[in-house]
Amino acid sequence: MREKIEELLEEVRELKAKNEQEIEEIRVKLLGKKGKISQLFDDFREVLPEQKKELGQMLNQLKVAASKKIEELRSSIDINSYSRESQHDLTKPGNLFEIGSKHPISITRNEILSIFAKLGYAVADGPEIEDDWHVFGALNFPPEHPARDMQDTFFIASGANPVLLRTHTSSIQVRAMESMKLPIRIVCPGRVFRNEAISARAHCIFHQVEGLYIDKGVSFG
Q: What pLDDT, on a 0 to 100 scale, did the predictor assign at position 91?
């Protein structure tokens, strides 16, 4: 029996399998009810008493080795299968991505700025959060003007020179006149804010474009 155990142990060490079906066949062949190892356990009953301890240990080691080998084969099959599935096919066409489109507001804004650029205007920008002077005071809005009321304007901070969300892009023109030298030829696009009820026709945020041209001999012609 010793020779049979040693031969079978060597056979277990050399086991190979290509797929799960072959692994199952190996398991049945070795550990099934009529398998080789199961048969050795049946034969073990006839072993002489003085040999049972040594051969019993060898049989248990053989069974453990066979079970471990089968698990190793299963793990190897899973890894190889995953590796094959995860390999990139360099001949496969790449994934197509949907190309987004520009928002209608952006399209309109760019068209307007393009027209003004051809006429020699530069684009000017300014803060959306402004002070009262640049939005109203510099434009000669009287203190009692309705636009300066909280019902029409979003005020952020009160004080001698309140802070608010600009109600028009004219504040950009004021800042341009404060910082630029003549002649000035600018176009001022941007978002503006009014405290209005939102409906299908109106919103509290909308876009505005204003132009400013200061020079000698300027006319609407």
A: 77
